[in-house]
Design brief:
Structural class: mainly alpha
Number of strands: 0
Order of helices and strands: HH
Largest sheet: none
Radius of gyration: 27 Å
């Protein structure tokens, strides 16, 4: 979240400098920015949906299974 806030703050700062210098911003129109926002939301949404729908991971060894695990000693047949 911090990189997004830093990016927003720097963008606002640069926008203010452009306004003080009376330079037209090279930024795309608002419609294009709305489309980029939609792309970002869609990308983040798919990642969140995958995380929510993924089967939960389980540990292969628990404390109750530890007593049934081999001790590591080799047993000759």
């Amino acid at each position: 979240m911090k990189p997004y806030l830093v990016s927003l703050a720097v963008g606002i700062l640069v926008g203010g400098i452009y306004a003080l210098l009376r330079v037209r911003s090279p930024a795309p129109p608002v419609v294009a920015l709305a489309g980029l926002l939609g792309i970002l939301i869609g990308e983040q949404g798919v990642g969140m949906a995958r995380a929510l729908l993924a089967p939960p991971t389980t540990a292969t060894t628990t404390s109750s299974d530890a007593s049934t695990q081999p001790s590591g000693k080799s047993h000759a047949p």
